[in-house]
Design goal:
- The structure is a single chain.
- By secondary structure, the chain is an alpha/beta fold.
- It has two domains: 5-98, Translation factors (Elongation Factor Tu (Ef-tu), domain 3, Beta Barrel); 112-238, 3-Layer(aba) Sandwich (Rossmann fold).
- It is 19% helix and 33% strand.
- The chain has five helices and eleven strands, in the order E-E-E-E-E-H-E-E-H-E-H-E-H-E-H-E.
- The chain has helices at residues 79-85, 121-134, 155-159, 191-197, 213-225, and strands at 5-15, 20-26, 38-44, 50-56, 65-71, 91-98, 112-117, 140-146, 168-174, 206-212, 233-238.
- Strands 4-3-6-1-2-5 form a six-stranded antiparallel beta sheet.
- The longest helix has 14 residues, at 121-134.
- The mean pLDDT is 93.
């Protein structure tokens, strides 16, 4: 096994949606990680062929145990195996943590604005959970754009946040169909959404945007046009290829 890779084993699974699953991995010797970082996973076939993919960590580490959420990509090479074939106790190679710019540290006192598009919620959820685990009182606001209510990741936590979690405000924005009684017409994220549910620029929030490339570019453009300092807008994109 190449340097930097560790053999992890699947310790648990939890379905988030019909096509997304959270994997709980035991990784002996895990050094810990920051909210927003990701890992590389490697699969090796019997004939020696290898495939690697990167996945964001969705929660703070618990000792040697980590969590990541995988969206199954139709005809993908790795994600169908991870979400449909990998079973409890199976091994998989892990390398990481990776990344040091798109991260949130509890010591940072600035208010935080999180903007997620679809599966882009994963690293941002790690930030929400880290804030909670550390007992931080840093004000958080999350704007989560998703197609339909059925596409919501981490539904239990985001629809019914734990008691006493004041300051972590969640706004769900649907693009195709919303829940019964919703007053917002389904539409893509727009400047009115960000202005109404985000932090004003004069608060100098730390802004984190994650999702498909087009979504991230549009959200970052909205933030800067509303007056947010581009230096305080951190973005992470993912493409539809691979899987």
């Amino acid at each position: 096994m190449a340097a930097g890779w560790r053999v992890a084993r699947l310790a648990g699974v939890h379905d988030e949606t019909a096509t997304a699953r959270t994997l709980v991995l035991d990784v002996p010797g895990w050094p810990g990680h920051l909210a927003g970082q990701h890992v590389d996973l490697q699969l090796t076939a019997e004939d020696g062929y290898q495939a690697q993919r990167s996945y964001s960590l969705s929660a703070p580490a618990r000792g040697d145990r980590i969590e990541l959420t995988v969206q199954r990509v139709p005809d993908g090479e790795v994600s169908p195996y991870l979400t449909e074939v990998l079973t409890i106790g199976d091994p998989i190679e892990v390398r990481g943590p990776v990344g040091g710019w798109f991260v949130w540290r509890p010591a940072d006192p600035a208010p935080v604005l999180l903007i997620a598009g679809g599966a882009g919620i994963v690293p941002l959820m790690a930030m929400v959970r880290t804030r909670r685990a550390e007992g931080s009182r840093t004000p958080f606001r999350l704007l989560y754009s998703l197609r339909t209510p059925a596409d919501l990741y981490y539904a239990e936590e985001l629809r019914r946040p734990p008691a006493g979690d004041a300051g972590a405000d969640v706004t769900l924005l649907h693009t195709r169909s919303g829940p019964p009684g919703s007053s917002r017409i389904p539409a893509r994220l727009n400047a009115e959404d960000v202005e109404r549910h985000g932090w004003p620029p004069e608060f100098e929030p730390a802004c984190y945007v994650c999702g498909p490339t087009g979504f991230v570019e549009a959200a970052a453009d909205i933030l800067t046009k509303l007056g947010h300092d581009p230096r305080r807008v951190r973005t992470e994109r993912f493409g539809a290829g691979g899987g």
